[in-house]
Amino acid sequence: MLKVLVFEFFPYHAQNFPMYPQLLPELLGTDDVSFEFYAVPEQIPDLIFPQPEHLHRIYPSTAFESRLKRLRLNVPYLKGVVALQRRKYRPDCIVFNTLEPGATYRTFAGIKATKKIGILHNPDTARFAKDANTRYLCMNEYIYQNLRADGLLDGYLLSFFPPLDLGATPAHDGIVVGIPGGISFNRRDYHVALDAAAIWKASNKPVHVTFNVIGEVGRKDGRALQEQIRSRGLERYFIFHERLTDADFAVQVHACDYLLPLVGGQQERYLKVKNSATFSHSARYLKPMVLPVTAAREWDLSPECCITYENTADLAARLASLPQPDPDIQKNYAALIARKLADNRAVLRAAAF
Fold it and tell me: Which residues contact 90 (CB under 8 A, 6 or more apart)?
């Protein structure tokens, strides 16, 4: 049996852990693989996957982590953690679930004589050394296709596997459109949803559409967004959440009819070279996306498997006219995701060590 250690040194992206048992055997050339996962203390209490006996704490506490960084001792500490776990498990492969310049790359580069995989969330800016024991992967097919000519990327991973099996979507009135992820004006064009809601309000007609903002409202730009909605009198069209564990987040995504990525305006990188987590969330629970025509084209999504719009007025009209989720769109989207996963496995087999 091959042993794989997966490290996530940042307080994000650990929700991608379920993809490794599903996809990494293709790259390793065998289904006989066991995994141990490592995350920072901030994330561990909220994670659904993996089982606790296979999930390990990188730092004893968040305070200890902060102290190390202030003292500039983070790199030797991380190298020590990896060295200790290598001695304990004698792994056949080590994965850095987020590889960035700085401490994580210096730690990664110091690993010798062991197969290693670096997941690049910003591959267009990465300038890393390659050798026979190293594979660099990005987080979606469209990124790989746009950047493969650069020669750094060996393939990609699709984080399309849900940590929970939640069954059928619960019944509810109207259409629920999810906007998942940390609430950040730098990452999502929230004004599109607000302006659509303002059109509904001005029409004085009943519109049974709700935007479910699936992020913690007390973090990042959550309160500022909530205040913008309140100042425009649009509260009836939005749902917010004070606290979300990994399980809570999954339940909220699963309860939606569609997901709205809100990319394409100021967020052009998410169309070409940076992964949209909303794409992954939608695939995990087979929730079709509502997105601009340009985004659908860049992500290779046909109109048969999503809802597209030209502008905000078009978005408002399309959503207001939906009496219920479209079963044909859902069926077509499920078929597309199955094809994309088959393609992903083929690419990984071709890049095998």
Answer: 3
